[in-house]
Design brief:
Low-confidence stretches: none
Number of strands: 0
Helix content: over 70%
Oligomer: single chain
Order of helices and strands: HHHHHHHHHHHHHHH
Amino acid sequence: SQNNLEIKKQNDSLLSVLSVKKDDSTQARTYRKLFQINRYFEPDKALFYIKKTQPPVVNMKCNKGTALIYIDIANHYNDTGEHALAVEYYIKAEKQIANIPSEKFNLYSGFFNAYLSQENFSKAKEYSNLFSQIALKSKDNYKIGLAYKSKGYLFTVIKDTINAKKNFGIALKYSQDNNENKANILMFLGDLEKNLKTKLDFYHQSQKNWNIINPKAILSTSNMMGIVEVNKEILKNEKLKQKYKISKSNALLIQESEQ
């Protein structure tokens, strides 16, 4: 696909930089870029690249650089479901950035995701509050959107639907310039919605954004499954089409369910 070709092109370009520029700073920065490019597409390769940044960063004796590597490794383990390992690396990072506030947002966000996945809700709430405070002070829409999205997700997990919808709604307002955040939030709103027409509307809006970013992403597939499940439910009961005023033909609903 076009996306895969673009990633290969970026990888080849960065690998050629590594073969020419051998100084520690360039090596570390380039391996980190390779991690970021491959993180969601080839996680094993991404982990290999981020671990290659460690020798040059150690040589430079750079606390911030070391912390960033630990956060990246922790993020990888969060992505792959190894949350206890993720927490270990976030703790290592925290020791390195005590006096570097600029990186604390990403660190606390990582802790939040790891603890939430472990169902340690008190710790998840603690870190959600910490990085929300940083986001609001920063006046950065992207960070504020992430903070509210995380609160929405926490409320979803603990089954407080009213507060979940409220926080996702605020997150969406701050996330208009970020397709990935928008796609996530719209999907979560779809999951929470009882009205089948509104539910489908959220899922389809989410899919438009996933199609821009990466239609093969795990969450994109999850979103498509949401569309399929709702369509199947409607096809089984014609009265639901009338109740929710769904104007799509059965043929179109079937077609969407078979994609």
